[in-house]
Amino acid sequence: MKIHKYDTVIVGAGGAGMRAAIEATKRSRTAVLTKLYPTRSHTGAAQGGMAAALANVEEDNWEWHTFDTVKGGDYLVDQDAAEILAKEAIDAVLDLEKMGLPFNRTKDGTIDQRRFGGHSRNHGEAPVRRSCYAADRTGHMILQTLYQNCVKEGVEFFNEFYVLDQLITEVDGVKKSAGVVAYELATGEIHVFQAKSVIYASGGTGKFFKVTSNAHTLTGDGQAACFRRGLPLEDMEFFQFHPTGIWRMGILLTEGARGEGGILRNKDGERFMEKYAPVMKDLASRDVVSRSIYTEIREGRGCGPEGDHVYLDLTHLPPEQLDAKLPDITEFARTYLGIEPYTDPIPIQPTAHYAMGGIPTNVQGEVLADNDTVVPGLYAAGEVACVSVHGANRLGTNSLLDINVFGRRAGIAAAEYAQKADYVELPENPAEFVAQQVEQLRNSTGSERVAELRRELQETMDANVMVFRTEQTIKTAVEKIAELRERYKNVSVQDKGKRFNTDLLEAIELGNLLDLAEVMAVSALARKESRGGHYREDYPNRDDVNFMRHTMAYREVDSDGKDSIRLDYKPVVQTRYQPMERKY
Amino acid sequence: MSTATLDKPGSGSQQDASPYITVVFRIRRFNPEVSDEATWQDFQVEIDPKERVLDGLHKIKWDLDGSLTFRRSCAHGICGSDAMRINGKNRLACKTLIKDINPHKPITVEPIKGLTVLKDLVVDMDPFFQAYRDVMPFLITKGNEPTRERLQSAEDRERFDDTTKCILCAACTSSCPVFWNDGQYFGPAAIVNAHRFIFDSRDEAGEQRLEILNDKDGVWRCRTTFNCTDACPRGIEVTKAIQEVKRALITRRF
Ligand SMILES: Cc1cc2nc3c(=O)[nH]c(=O)nc-3n(C[C@H](O)[C@H](O)[C@H](O)COP(=O)(O)OP(=O)(O)OC[C@H]3O[C@@H](n4cnc5c(N)ncnc54)[C@H](O)[C@@H]3O)c2cc1C
Ligand code: SF4
Ligand code: FES
């Protein structure tokens, strides 16, 4: 075991982690621990764009953007945070441009903007061009640009270090962050990082679903590490299902495709979104479009022999436009489906995409231990966190924005905290939990296999807690997850070595997924209403009287070591907007 | 090789009963904890030929041999984790469909060449990223920053579009015979990333970058074998980018 000491430790080197690192490195001695090489992070997969009311191509302002964000989130958004997001968006985009990001340009040489779902002029009048983009690889360009600037600033990275535990020490009755424990992939060695402040920027958890746009490595490690240490997770029942994943594979085809004029059609060739969202049509918010697709499929208007998908039709768009604006996704269709999007519609289905919930923070990125107490020295930003700017449903292009705005904020706040704080004493035997976990998995002779448990988990999640949910389906999922968690105790790995033991790490990642799936299902069961991404067929309406509040889930362990989940609730921050019915 | 029949898209054969076929993966294994020698190992996998080579590797890892080790993340050609030598050619495992590489013969999978193998298909990427960092891969400007964005015409933006696509997968560099023989050579990927800034109208450090690439281990080592362009999974015209850098060095115009 090795012990390191830094002022600030950042967990994750995606957009949020690197944006934080650029700030933190200027202000404090900073280490970035990341399980992937920074440029491998899933921010690189983002396609469509980053929202900011630059008003480069038509009238726009940050207040309209705030409204759309609040409405898009079905009013579960904390409105103070949404205001910050929309206001700071403009500088966030300009900062990236100054760092070198090659945005697409208008005729005048300014940053070009395009339409995206849920973003509107003057509180829902008509779609507005707010998304700043670099072809359909905006996330790639953000990730590259931030990495380039990390190289410039001399950010210190520990690549292929997996953070597996959060260290918390109680000082005078206050829980404080003391550091993290990481496992080095190359050697199998365990490292303790003592740090005055820690920022989680470890991304999403999509891999508990089968059909997903998320990378294999998005297993919610950060959420799981904090949760296990008694910290809450907020709004975990809210998961976004993006309407246009490649049929069966889940690979994303950006909403920008519809922003450029693409149309969804059922087996009769009908533009069905006109029925469900007369104004915004194909650009209604994602939860609405995903449900509409499944309604078409359920009512027998799906395409293909099994009627299990619909089409994304780009054939009426000029090939030059597709080449210039959507080169990557048209290539995905060619590579993975053998389909030529110039002439043929692309089969799609909703794909599990984005975790609205996560580690609760305030607008400085400080992690909350309950509804109002912060954990000194602990921060989170990006998809791992829940500020909450996305509420019950995130608008497209608001996450690339979130990681930049709140990544920057967390980086500054954490480093400034580290400048004046002292180190918190490490718990006795700080590496104990990770060492035991690793040893136990390595030595286990149990009969359960990681891949099999993961398959069963993903199947139950897809079948029971996806776009449509009911009391019964969620209960089925809760029971199945409990069974899988029990069987997980008996899991073993084949690779017993120390070097690059990805077999072992997949087992650990599965443990995290199981814990988080349970939180999601239990939170969903208790929310007896429909709001944003959480749709209960047995409670199809939004219920502001009982459920206009954030879910806060806590791990409880009783004296026999048996664990359970306790749910609590947190009020939503409302400033200017009163909840209204959401129509597109 | 030529006798195998590949699926032709739209040939109507999709309706046939089971899409699964048996494919042999012949994989270069190396684990220094077990032995100093690398060996070939065959695995038989039932797989739909429309699946990716990465799906095949996962089937092996998940159902047959958990110790098989490779890097991967996004699974759709965007993160650059899984460049490997598949049937002797550098490709991304997640972007290569089995039907496209003759599944009726064993499919060979080896680590990319020229970088130290650490375990199975995992190589040491540090020298590769070091070369990248050496070309100062970040925008350098002088004077005061404007309050709004810097202006750039659509044409100026287009000028370096191709080289912004790079995902740093190393398929190009590790397919380059010059790099195999001499690891000191910057390699195509670093030059591609220098190109991305040299030809960006906003950047003001082109001269400095050109000087770096004028070094004995710089662009002049390139022998224009086009391996890199063939290997690039992002379709970047790597050789052309290198040529443009060479020309800029001679004319000092970019
Ligand atoms: C296909 C796709 C397209 C998208 N398109 C858009 C879009 O157009 N616009 C938009 O706004 N949003 C989009 N999104 C959403 C957005 O891209 C993501 O939410 C966002 O990029 C997440 O960034 P992040 O920095 O939080 O996490 P990530 O980029 O996922 O980074 C996570 C980091 O954490 C590290 N990490 C994870 N676990 C550990 C651990 N245990 N120890 C150490 N390190 C760890 C990883 O190595 C990685 O560096 C898209 C998402 C997907 C999947
Ligand atoms: S130029 Fe192409 S092959 Fe080379 S590293 Fe970049 S993406 Fe990979
Ligand atoms: S796994 Fe990301 S490029 Fe292949």
DSSP helical segment count of chain A:
16
Mean pLDDT of chain B: 92
Biggest sheet record of chain B = 5 strands, mixed
Helical content of chain B, roughly? 25-40%
Alpha-carbon Rg of chain A, integer: 23 Å
**CATH homologous superfamily title of the largest domain in chain B:** Alpha-helical ferredoxin
Description:
The complex is a heterodimer of chains A (584) and B (254). Chain A is α/β, with parallel strands linked by helices and 584 residues long. Among the domains of chain A are: 258-350, Succinate dehydrogenase/fumarate reductase flavoprotein, catalytic domain (Flavocytochrome C3, Chain A, domain 1, Alpha-Beta Complex); 432-571, Methane Monooxygenase Hydroxylase, Chain G, domain 1. Chain A is 35% helix and 22% strand. Chain A is built from 16 helices and 20 strands. In chain A, the strands form 5 sheets. In chain A, strands 1, 2, 6, 7, 8, 9, 16 and 17 form an 8-stranded mixed sheet that branches. In chain A, a hairpin with a 2-residue loop joins strand 7 (161-171) and strand 8 (174-184). Chain A is globular, with a radius of gyration of 23 Å. With 254 residues, chain B is of the alpha+beta class. Chain B has 2 domains: 3-123, Beta-grasp domain (Ubiquitin-like (UB roll)), CATH 3.10.20; 126-251, Fumarate Reductase Iron-sulfur Protein, Chain B, domain 2. Helix content of chain B is 28%, strand content 14%. Chain B has a 5-stranded mixed sheet, with helices on one face. A two-stranded antiparallel ribbon of chain B has the order 6-7. In chain B, helix 5 runs antiparallel to helix 6 (206-213) and helix 5 (188-198) crosses helix 8 (238-251). Chain B starts with 20 loop residues before the first strand and ends with a helix. The interface between A and B is large, with 59 and 58 residues. The structure holds flavin-adenine dinucleotide (FAD), iron/sulfur cluster and FE2/S2 (inorganic) cluster. The site of flavin-adenine dinucleotide (FAD) has 46 residues of chain A, from helix 1, strand 2, helix 4, strand 7 and helix 5.
